[in-house]
Structures are given as structure tokens and as C-alpha cells.
Specification:
Blueprint: E1 11-14, H1 19-32, E2 36-39, H2 48-53, E3 76-79, H3 85-94, E4 100-104, E5 116-119, E6 131-133, H4 143-153, E7 164-168, H5 180-197, E8 200-204, H6 211-218, E9 225-228, H7 239-245, E10 248-252, H8 256-263, E11 269-272, H9 281-288, H10 292-301, H11 311-322, H12 332-340, E12 345-346, H13 361-375
Parallel strand pairs: 1-2, 1-3, 3-4, 4-5, 5-6, 7-8, 7-10, 8-9, 10-11, 11-12
Helix pairs in contact: 4-7, 5-6, 9-10, 9-12
Organism: Thiohalobacter thiocyanaticus
Pfam families: Mito_fiss_Elm1
Protein name: Nucleoside-diphosphate-sugar epimerase
Amino acid sequence: MKRDNPVAAQVWIVDAYRAGEQTQLRALAEALALPWERKSLHYRKREIRTNLFRGRDLHGVDRSRSDPLSPPWPDLVLSAGMRNEPVCRWIRDQSGGRTRIVFVGRLWADPKHFDLIITTPQYRVPERPNVLRNDLPLHRVHPDTLAAAAEHWAPRLAHLPRPYITVNMGGNSGPYAFGRHAAQRLVRDALALARARGGSLLVSSSARTRPAAIAAFAAQSEVPMQLYRWQRNDPDNPYLGFLALADELIITADSISMLSEAYATGKPVHMFDLGVGRFSMRRDMHLAAGDTAAARAVIERDAGKQCDIAPGALAYRALMRWGWKHLSRDISRVHLELIRAGKMAWLGDPHPGSQAHQSSDMQRALGRVRALLETAPA
């Protein structure tokens, strides 16, 4: 049955517990332009049954410390994260099956238990009619927010010569380590690009950036630069301003969210490979494409180069190879799609140039969610 007035739908965000997923949920809710309410939950860490088998109950939630979940029940729930799966299914049960569930990112239960899953290539969610596989994560970077950030930050950076090369740094992620050796390569390659363009560097760190990477940039004096050291809840964080004013961007390829936000600017984006040789992101990308010859060529090219090694990265790599595939994510699949589509290039490789259009990921997501609301029972 088709709803007469889907515009009146009420939305809950059953909030995620990771910053990247929180951003995606808010981006989707804001783009829907419907009234929405955030539900923040606290979880029982020792609730093994719910965490492992994920039913349709609230046994994993500490209700005394969480926002209330009570009628009137919403028409739509947006959520992400393993511990929220049984919560969302419980909400739908309480609504008599009326509530629609849209889940973002990785999914642990069978997709049949949800109305729509919006995911990206690094997660091994099965191909199903209710699975939407976007190229990049959803985000809140839009032309109007970029314009406002540019207006605010342009006078504060006017002393630096253009063009601006923005460098956004992540950190250790899954099978990749971002330490001293990677930081030295990043500084070297960023300086080379800035010198070739005759411009300046706008460098921003994040919560995951190791001190060695920040120190490596702070020590350079060859190129004019503005360096931001990340601080929690900093109202003067220039991240959006650096994005808005960039003429080109260098993004460490560990962060798919930062790649997505950089792509939204429409400027050329260069991905920085954290690893070299057999730990190279490019090698893993070629293996994901089934091109073993290109993967071997990367190892040969990087012979003798030093790579950062971290125990956690090695353990994650072992999990990806020998463990249950669903426990890990493979960001090389995202890199592969970005390179194939000509959306980005590895730093040092020829770049296809500025993008003439914005990503259609959000529009695809909105179309699917609105279709759900139109067919939801009144």
C-alpha cells in the first residue's frame, strides 16, 4: 500500500558508536529533510548472547543510561553498528511491523532482516535486492558548507601563496601502519607537488595521526605551510576550510571517509599509499582486481624501501587472509573502484583532473529510502 503523505514520516537515528558512522547517519537524516530524533544508547559489554547471535531484543542495552525507546514508534529508523541490529529489529516489532529499518555500513545479521542496507565496497555484505552498494560513504560536505568555510578561512590563509595543496592525514588502519617511514615519504611527496605547483601546503592531522607524522611536517621549512594539530571538540578546526580552499588534495588512503569528503570538493584528489612492497595499498588493490603481475611489479618497484610495521596491522592482515572474511574490511576494494572510475589517482601518478560532477551516492540513497517510506503501511 502506498502512503499518501510520506513527507510526514517521523525518523529516529539509533546512533552509532563510531564517529564515521555517526556522520553518515546525520548526513542521510539531514538530506531526507524529515523531522528526526537521536537516540543515544549505552551497552552491556558482557551481553555475549546479544553481541554474538543478534536477535531482536534490548538485552544488550543498559536502559537506565540510555535514551528512552517508547511510543509513538517511528516510521523510519536509521542506524549502524553490530549492537544496534537487535535494537532496530525490536523497535520494528513494537510498531507492529510498520517501522522501516535502514542500516549503514557493515551488517552482521542476514540482510533479509532489514529493509535497506547502504554500504560500500570494503564491507562484504552479500548482494541482495535490499543492498545498495555506494562507491563512497555518505558525508555532510556540500557546496554551501564549503562556501561558508572558504569565506571564513580565506582571510586567515591569505599570507600563503596559491595554489593550495591540502594534506589530510589519518593513521593506522586495519592492515596498514602509518609511522615514521610513511610520514617521511608523505612529506617528501607533498613537498615535491607543492614545489612543482609553486604553492603552499595546508596540512591537517586527525585523532588517529601519530606524533611522528605531525613532527615530520613541522620540521620542514622548504614550502610555506599551515599545520593544524588535531584537538578534540575544537571549534576552530580548519578541516572544512582546508577542504574548501584546496586547489588539489592529498589524502592518506586509510580513511575512506576523508576520501569521500575530499571527492565532494570536485578538486583533484591524490591518494597516499601508507605502505610499500608487500604491505603496499597499491599491491593489495591489484590483488583485489586479480592482477598478480601488477602486484608483483609493486613489490619489485619498492625493493629496498623501508615500511612501517605494527603488530596490530600484521594481526589484521592475518585475519583477512585466514580468518572469517566477515570480521574484516578490505579498503583496497574502494581504492580499486576509485581508480577504475578515474575519480582519484595515487600520489605520484598522472591525475585525471577535477571532477565535473558531485557524487551521486547520496541521491541513490535518498531515492531508495523515500521509496521505502512511500510503500510503508500508514
